[in-house]
Predict the 3D structure of the following.
Amino acid sequence: MAVPVGVPERQAPGPTTAAAGGRVEGRSLPQMAWRRLRRDRAAMAGLGVVSALVLIAIFAPVLTWLNGYSPTQFNPGAIDPALGGVPKGPLGGIGAEHWLGVEPKSGRDIFSRLVYGARVSLLISVGATGVAVVLGTVFGIVAGYVGGWADAVIGRTMDVLLSFPSLIFMIALVAMLPNANRPLLLIVVIGFFGWSYVGRIVRGQTISLAQREFVEAARALGASTRYIVFRELLPNLAGPILVVATLTIPTYIAVEAALSFLGVGVKPPTPSWGQMLSDAVDWYQVIPSYFVLPGLCLFITVLSFNLLGDGLRDAIEPRGDGS
């Protein structure tokens, strides 16, 4: 799961920063973070790949139209029934007609299924991250700022959720609702079991921020709790929350792929990288490309998000680099 991100004492925005509208020496804090991020080649490479994946997911219908094959379209002419459904041609049928070959037995176009698999993976992982971030932020701020019995109840709840073998419970819950909207169910279940990680980070940062001078000054001036939360705490929590969200997305991509690999994720014929890996297990010795391609997509996606998340963390929370 996402690595806890702390806000060092020397980096916490004080009253001067808040009063200046989040600007330091004539430059806004987002501008300074962007300048640091641009100097991180690994993070920029990750950003480039992530941006390309988002565009692929958005324009998946256009790409499959150019390819000429739907991800669910069976193509009996592309396989050899006499050989048990092995694709015709070298490397699993790779050629001008099928750019990345076809699936054994069904003849479905692998390129089209990979493209739509990117859409499914990003939709579920981003949706689940949104659920986890919203719940984690709300409960984390309540626990950190209100304290007392609210902190005790929410803290114990987070401890219980963190102690659960979440993957097993996800499998059980998804299996109990076989006719539900599977992508929506996965978003809710994964997000529910993941909010405690975000909540613990937000709680810790809220406790630290609540003791800062600019929050104490707002209290002394009679500011309401709503004002303090939305005008003082949330703007200063935005950076750590953004980093946690970026590092959480690849985790949930892997979780969705694992659930689909185990047969309790996205239902066929809806394409999923994990589902494709599961189907390829019986064919990897005959057609290695069928196994390698979805695995490579999964690896590159998770790596790119992690590189981007690490770069964002360093950009938002510089550690004595003189920036």
